[in-house]
Write a structure and sequence with these properties.
The chain is an alpha/beta fold and 348 residues long. Helices cover 25% and strands 23% of the residues. The radius of gyration is 19 Å and the shape is globular. The structure holds NADPH dihydro-nicotinamide-adenine-dinucleotide phosphate and N-acetyl-L-glutamyl 5-phosphate. N-acetyl-L-glutamyl 5-phosphate binds next to helix 6 and strand 11. This is N-acetyl-gamma-glutamyl-phosphate reductase.
Length: 348
């Protein structure tokens, strides 16, 4: 394989920085232009001192000129900014959007949850998503545009989709409650992230069906084979830098037992390099996934409540963003899907 040149827009941000951290270990990639907005003209090391090999690189403005001429462009920009940038980049570049602009199929969903005009729909960058009898990875070979999923969406979808696809649960009765690390909110200061108030507290946000990831999860479960879908989704900010622990429960279909559920999850994930159904009795923790492109899962059947309970853990910045994005890049370019991606976490 010849060397792939990669530009990263939003390189001073958390998602862009994580793309760079992972790309530094990718054997086929050469890192090209790094761009930002207000941080243009400053050194990358001022924003990401952990990215030592790139510390002296100077951030450029995010323009067509700086981003063009690369094989791959990652966009780690705030929602609503990617459409205009992508439109200026030629079809010969693979453009991978880490934001939400091109994830949703429904323009009405976009307007309801994000506001403004819908930019469009790109191939969805969740290789493991069950789509009919196949997987979304089949749709990623050779594409030149990829919309990377939301991090919460990744945790919940991977957690519940095998049961939904196999008809083992009622897709109109799915409830997900999540513990979320701060970095999911990006680096810009936000009122609900003032350290003196948020440290030491667990605080729900986006409650009552208002979070913008609700339509994306529903879209995924429909693609996985559900007819009607209803998902109750409640994220909770907890004092950790990275990580998502999602507990997703759903009402079991009649007659379904734990053996049937476990068999469905094993069938769905045994061949997946990054999705690990843990041995029975062992429960996921965010710590075990930190820095790794993995999702760890465990399930139980609550017989009294007749509900399936699935716990899934990911690193929001790796499997939830940058790692998933590079996995999709590999598929789009015809590289081995796992190239440059680690299953080794960072613990304790
Ligand atoms: N954090 C996470 O866990 C996840 C994030 N994402 C998505 O990735 C994208 C980036 O998020 P994140 O890195 O967390 O956000 P950050 O706030 O940490 O970073 C935003 C980046 O975008 C740049 N930027 C801001 N406005 C503009 C603009 N108008 N034009 C060009 N560049 C601009 C910033 O540059 P400057 O330094 O100059 O301001 C910075 O580099 C978002 O769409 C987010 O939703 C997706 C999944 C998970
Ligand atoms: C803690 C926190 O605020 N997390 C963010 C995760 C954002 C994300 O996954 O990215 P997108 O914004 O690209 O959808 C949230 O729940 O909205």
């Amino acid at each position: 394989m010849t060397t792939i040149t990669v530009a990263v827009a939003g390189a001073s941000g958390y998602a862009g920085g994580e793309v760079l951290r992972l790309l530094l270990s990718h054997p086929d990639v050469e890192i090209g232009a790094l761009t930002a907005a207000s941080s243009a003209g400053t050194a990358l090391g001022a924003h990401h001192p952990h990215l030592v090999p790139l510390a002296d690189r100077v951030l450029q403005p995010t323009t067509t000129e700086t981003l063009s001429g690369h094989d791959v462009v990652f966009l780690g920009l705030p929602h609503g900014e990617s459409g205009a940038v992508a439109a200026q980049l030629g079809d010969d570049a693979l453009v991978i959007d880490l934001g939400a602009d091109f994830r949703l199929e429904s323009a009405d969903d976009w307007t309801e949850f994000y506001g403004g005009e819908h930019a469009g729909t790109w191939p969805y960058g969740m290789p493991e998503l069950i789509v009919g009898a196949g997987r979304q990875r089949d749709a990623l070979a050779g594409v030149n545009r990829v919309a990377v999923p939301g991090c919460n969406v990744t945790a919940v979808t991977l957690g519940i989709q095998p049961a939904v696809a196999a008809g083992l649960v009622e897709a109109t009765d799915v409830v997900a409650v999540l513990a979320n690390g701060y970095s999911g909110a990006g680096k810009a200061p936000k009122a609900h992230l003032i350290a003196s108030e948020a440290l030491g507290a667990a605080s729900p946000y986006g409650v009552g069906g208002t979070h913008r990831h609700v339509p994306e999860i529903m879209q995924n479960l429909r693609r996985a084979g559900a007819g009607e879908v209803a998902v109750s989704f409640t994220p909770t900010l907890v004092p950790m830098a990275r990580g998502i622990l999602a507990t997703t429960t759903a009402r079991l279909a009649g007659g379904v037992d734990v053996a049937a559920v476990r068999a469905a999850y094993e069938a769905a994930y045994d061949d997946e390099p990054f999705i690990h159904l843990l041995p029975e009795g062992q429960w996921p923790t965010t710590a075990a996934t930190l820095g790794a492109n993995t999702a760890q899962l465990q399930l139980a059947v609550d017989e009294r409540a007749r509900r399936l309970v699935v716990v899934s853990a990911i690193d929001n910045l790796v499997k939830g963003t940058a790692g998933g994005a590079i996995q999709s890049m590999n598929l789009a370019l015809g590289l081995a899907e796992t190239t440059g991606l680690s299953t080794i976490g960072l613990a304790p």
